[in-house]
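WARN no homologs supplied; continuing
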Amino acid sequence: MPVVKPISDLQRNSGAIAESCRKTKEPVCLTKNGSASLVVMDAEAYGDQTRALTTIQEREDHIQRTIARGYDDLTNGRVRPWKQAKAEADRKS
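OK structure emitted
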């Protein structure tokens, strides 16, 4: 859960906000007139979060391509019954 502070705190205490971000690895949400205005976070935590999101997106893209390939195989008749596929696999092993 991010810490919420008025944006004026950034002007007065930027060092303390930066230190809080570094220590907790949590973002600080800065508000202006009671509404969210900016989010400040530690650069290392941002990099970690960005890498994690990239990894998730790559996995989801792979899954989507695999599903599309399977659907294409199904719609173009490139499938066979399970028993036939299993029998062929058993013969190869």
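The radius of gyration is 25 Å.
OK
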